[in-house]
Please model this.
Amino acid sequence: MDTGLIITIIIFVVVSIVILKIVTKLIKAVLMILIIAFLITSIFGFFTYQDAVELKDNLETKPKLMLLQDNEKIVAGFVTTDFEEEPEFLTISQITEYQNSFKKQDYKKMLGNNYKMFIIKIKAFDFDDEELDFIGKKVSKNLLYSVLKSNDPISLYKGETGIDPALNGISDPVEFKAVVFAVLFSEAIEKKGTLFIFNEYKKKNIIVYPETAVFKFIKLIPTSFVKNMFEKAKDSAINKINQTIKR
Model:
């Protein structure tokens, strides 16, 4: 047999063995990566599920600190346990304390004894000509936006509507803004449910503290998927209610 052919065959065999060993190692490495990824995903999914259950229960029963952010300032806020009941509106002195901590990003101090803290940027809300019931009168959301931006919100509101908030026991301008904030938040929750919080959080319009597994998971998935997920959950809930009614 030709010596050149023999050398070629030997080289081919050696190269084939080397390639096979490399491919085998790569396959093992890929499989190992896939297994590790599966385990991490499963563990993360388990903790996310646990957190979601805990979040649902605690949001309904434990106090939550809701703060309104305009640019880099905390301008209003309230504490609520049940979204159905009237919250505790924060005053000027309380907001000043929160603002000082907010500058330092000392979220732990801001949270205090509350279960969760939500810092919501003013741009998270829709401001248009739609009217809302507010202190016994229908007013546009555009007017409420002006109130939130004003340095003298009570005088502005009184001048625009003829209604003095002081007659309803509100003389603190920051407390008055807190009432506006609560009404806007309530309307957003009524329209969109918890999707409002998750969607605006994903847009970075809401800071959540502490940021637990559910919120970290929401960061990783597309906004459209979040919306679809909550719409399906809402449809499922409506179907269950309808089935219960028909029994």
In short: The domain at 64-126+177-236 is CATH 3.30.1050 (Nonspecific Lipid-transfer Protein; Chain A). The first strand starts at residue 64 and ends at 70. The radius of gyration is 28 Å.
